[in-house]
Design brief:
Blueprint lengths: L1 H25 L3 E7 L1 E2 L8 E2 L1 H13 L3 E2 L2 H9 L8 E7 L3 H14 L3 E5 L1 H5 L8 H8 L3 E5 L16 H23 L5 E3 L7 H10 L2 E3 L5 E3 L10 E2 L7 H8 L1 E3 L2 E5 L4 E2 L5 E6 L10 E4 L3 E2 L1 E6 L2 E5 L7 E10 L6 E10 L12
Parallel strand pairs: 1-5, 1-11, 2-3, 4-5, 5-6, 6-7, 8-9, 12-21, 14-21
Antiparallel strand pairs: 1-10, 13-15, 15-19, 16-17, 16-20, 18-19, 20-21
Helix pairs in contact: 2-4
Length: 359
């Protein structure tokens, strides 16, 4: 009898162990995050998906077996090195447009998909008819909506006002962030302590400010979040406008974080010379011959290998004024998905009054 009991316990233990290994094999340690703005047929096409396109995206997530999860929880799990469900993905919106409530929310609600909206509160507080109300946000919260910080007035966070000192600029940026945190707590009773930088622009001063406040923040570079990410400058995949094609979205949803040990981009600003970025890869077997880096508006970057695991990607020419980026991709060993990495630089003009490039 004892031997049968022992056998049963051992067999149960083996089954539990096998189940645990199976669950571990199905888990993932990274998260693609989708970024939307408008859900409308009449808003600017560059930042919009139509309701039909948004339905197509959400239907694909559902039928392809993606697990749409809460962004805040997922980020905290990644930071703690906890596994996410297989095919985990998160959905976000920037700006508190009312068409998110009218056209996007019913689609998400029907599928029980959680989502996050980064709100700029100035138009909300003045009751603009084009933006969400606090009451609508409360309703959306009941069905998986989370509302996070996008500053008060959606400024270029690295530009100073005329005659403004660096100290005054820093104080103004703190006010832009702290006021929204206070309003979230006042109207909704809580804040997820997440922020999306307007226009995706930040520098080390701003990122350090976020770290001190315990706020996780997103830029506008594309890529996949992992435990190795900079949690004060996280990537997302744009899914609106030119990026709304389902075929290209499928590739991004099937991406993994580039296995990088270090990145040296030479700072946040571009100058009169072409930008370069130095990437050092982790130990492992990779398809380096298939690594390709693309420069916005310029084609492929030149790749120069400094060692077996270190490459320098250089743009063909200098960026024009504004934001420019280099996107690097590489197929994984099995050829079933792509590793993905992106970096953004800002090329400034004197009359834009950007803060010191060393700030």
């Amino acid at each position: 009898m004892l031997s049968k009991v022992r056998y049963g316990v051992m067999r149960c233990g083996l089954l539990v162990g096998a189940l645990g290994m199976s669950m571990m094999a199905q888990a993932q340690d990274f998260l693609p995050v989708l970024q939307y703005h408008h859900v409308s047929s009449t808003s600017p096409k560059s930042t919009s998906v139509t309701p039909e396109q948004f339905t197509e995206h959400m239907d694909y997530l559902q039928t392809a077996g993606f697990k749409v999860i809460d962004l805040k929880t997922a980020l905290e799990d990644l930071k703690a090195n906890k596994a996410l469900p297989e095919k985990a993905v998160a959905i976000t919106f920037d700006d508190a447009y009312r068409n998110i409530y009218k056209a996007g929310f019913p689609i998400l609600k029907e599928r029980h998909f959680p989502f996050t909206v980064f709100i700029n509160t100035e138009p909300v507080e003045r009751n603009s008819r084009s933006f969400l109300t606090w009451q609508q946000m409360k309703e959306m919260e009941e069905f998986g909506g989370v509302f996070a910080n996008h500053t008060i007035s959606h400024p270029y966070m690295l530009r100073k006002l005329e005659g403004e000192t660096d100290v005054a600029w820093s104080t103004r940026m703190e006010t832009e962030v702290d006021t929204v945190e206070a309003l979230l707590n006042e109207h909704l009773g809580h804040s997820p302590k997440m922020l999306a930088y307007p226009y995706g622009e930040s520098n080390q001063t701003i990122r350090s400010m976020m770290a001190e406040k315990g706020i996780m923040a997103f830029g506008q570079q594309s890529g996949v979040v992992s435990a190795d990410s900079d949690f004060e400058n996280l990537p997302r995949f744009p899914a609106s406008g030119a990026y709304s094609k389902l075929s290209t979205l499928k590739t991004k949803l099937n991406s993994q974080p580039m296995p990088l040990l270090t990145v040296d981009a030479g700072g946040d600003f571009a100058g009169v010379d072409p930008v370069s970025i130095r990437l050092t890869f982790k130990e492992g077997k990779y398809r380096f011959k298939d690594l390709a880096c693309y420069v916005s508006g310029q084609g492929k970057a030149a790749l120069e290998w400094a060692s077996d695991r270190e490459v320098v990607a250089t743009a063909p020419k200098a960026f024009g004024t504004g934001r420019g980026r280099i996107n690097c991709t590489m197929p994984d060993r099995a050829g079933r998905s792509y590793y993905w990495f992106s970096n953004v630089w800002i090329r400034t003009k004197a009359d834009q009054r950007y803060v010191s490039e060393k700030s």
